[in-house]
Design brief:
- The chain is built from four helices and no strands.
- It is mostly helical and about 130 residues long.
- It has a domain at about 50-125.
Length: about 130
């Protein structure tokens, strides 16, 4: 079970590292050196967005729901040992799914901050 948690943690952290801000701006008539400066400044604001709380909440809720469903399934189709195993597996699986969901929500918030910042500086954001 501990090995599963380690693998899960590595997976979640890996997914968080893969996320990036894919905001597309219409660059026609734009001074690109000024745009790069503005974008770096806006990305500084993006770094202030904390997605850790969102990830933790989503993971915790997912773990609880997974444990309940897994435990119930184990109880229905087996004995108390099967219920305990089902709850454990469901908790880990639900926690993983919740973490991935939390990462997505956090990244959406970050992209929105970048869009708002660039729009506020006069750029036409296309996506």
């Amino acid at each position: 079970m501990k090995a599963s948690l380690i693998v899960l943690s590595v997976l979640v952290l890996g997914l968080a590292g893969c996320a990036n801000n894919q905001v597309i701006v219409d660059t026609k008539g734009v001074d690109m050196s000024r745009y790069q400066q503005d974008r770096r400044e806006c990305e500084g604001y993006v770094e202030q967005v904390s997605s850790g709380g969102t990830i933790a909440k989503s993971a915790g809720l997912g773990a609880v729901i997974g444990a309940v469903v897994g435990g119930a399934a184990g109880a229905i189709f087996g004995d108390s040992t099967a219920a305990a195993r089902g709850a454990a597996v469901g908790g880990v699986t639900g926690g993983a799914q919740g973490s991935v969901s939390g990462i997505a929500k956090g990244e959406n918030s970050k992209e929105q901050v970048l869009r708002n910042c660039l729009s506020g500086r006069g750029y036409r954001v296309l996506n």
